[in-house]
Amino acid sequence: MEQAVYKKVLLKLSGETFMGKLSGGIDPDVVDALAYEIRDVVALGVQLGIVIGGGNIFRGMSESAKSMDRTTADYMGMLATVINSLALQSALEHAGVTTRVQSAIEMRAVAEPFIQRRAMRHLEKGRVVIFAAGTGNPYFTTDTAAVLRAVEIKAEIIMKATKVDGIYDSDPVKNTDAVMYEKISYTDVLTKDLKVMDATAISLCRANGLPLCVFNLQKPGNIKKVICGQTVGTIVGG
User: Fold this and answer.
1) What superfamily does domain 8-236 belong to in CATH?
2) Domain extents for the chain?
3) Where does residue 11 fall: left (phi above 0), alpha (psi -120 to 50 degrees), or beta otherwise?
């Protein structure tokens, strides 16, 4: 029987993940498939927190937001993450996984307010906790929110889901000779400007000694493989 190497994990998903092959919005088939992968992980006894971006609905730095006040645009992006969080919660509950959404922006009709101790308690009871609305502050990305929540719940690792196999020395889509790193330090990610996460998020990982795994979500079973300690993707640490 497979054993989880990590007992408490923060999974970071991009909003674009939810689009599937659509040009925007949410593909329910993609979200449902993801929910069943998460169910398999929870069945291993893993305490799982999740942060989702909102880029499939609205991004504060997008073309459509250029004429807007940055603060307003960022708040709109945070609300987009709440929509994604509720969609994933619905899919997880349908898959038989008890789930809570906690929002950094108070909206009690649809989500709990983020309270660190309450989140910890939910996790201890085997509930998946989805952290919505970023940090609740403009000018901070959902990557930074994911690292912040990971530190707050004392996660052992943060897993960032992408469309490629890991971190490369150059864009693998544009450069077929790009080389993937199996391991790399936080400092090298910053100095090489590898665009894995924004600098604030990487610096927060480094300050707290939080390992980061960047992996390909489009390969079914990869979430479970990482959590079970298999060599998947790129590990950032040290």
Assistant:
1) Acetylglutamate kinase-like (3.40.1160.10)
2) 8-236
3) beta
